[in-house]
């Protein structure tokens, strides 16, 4: 019995997409020829050209890099806030633990005859 492995999506780098689009738009090369040269399907080149015409270079960048670049500053700010929060918690916990130890020692001293 033949079991077909699930093919993983292979993401093409932005530079590859731009190269393909530039070859088609600026140098008027065939989409099929460009696709064969790069080793991808013609439909990918067609989609990249359409996306570039509609959204420019930003449309060809991966969604993951978009989300990281758009919210990267916000994410870093939140990490900094979280770090400060835990530092403050630690500063509060140390005196609480010390007070607990003092109370326990005081109670032990009062119980001794």
UniProtKB/TrEMBL annotation:
One of its GO terms (molecular function) is sequence-specific DNA binding. Residues 20-64 form the Insertion element IS150 protein InsJ-like helix-turn-helix domain. InterPro entries: InsJ-like_HTH (IPR055247), Trp_repressor/repl_initiator (IPR010921), WH-like_DNA-bd_sf (IPR036388). Pfam families: HTH_28. Gene3D superfamilies: Winged helix-like DNA-binding domain superfamily/Winged helix DNA-binding domain (1.10.10.10). Signal peptide: none annotated. This is Insertion element IS150 protein InsJ-like helix-turn-helix domain-containing protein. It comes from Sporosarcina ureilytica.
């Amino acid at each position: 019995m033949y079991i077909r492995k699930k093919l993983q999506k292979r993401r093409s780098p932005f530079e590859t997409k731009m190269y393909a689009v530039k070859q088609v738009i600026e140098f008027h090369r065939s989409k099929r020829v460009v696709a064969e040269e790069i080793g991808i399907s013609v439909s990918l080149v067609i989609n990249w050209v359409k996306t570039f015409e509609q959204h420019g270079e930003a449309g060809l960048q991966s969604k993951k890099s978009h989300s990281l670049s758009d919210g990267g500053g916000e994410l870093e700010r939140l990490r900094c806030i979280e770090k400060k929060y835990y530092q403050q918690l630690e500063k509060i916990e140390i005196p609480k633990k010390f007070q607990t130890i003092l109370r326990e020692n005081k109670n032990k001293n009062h119980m001794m005859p």
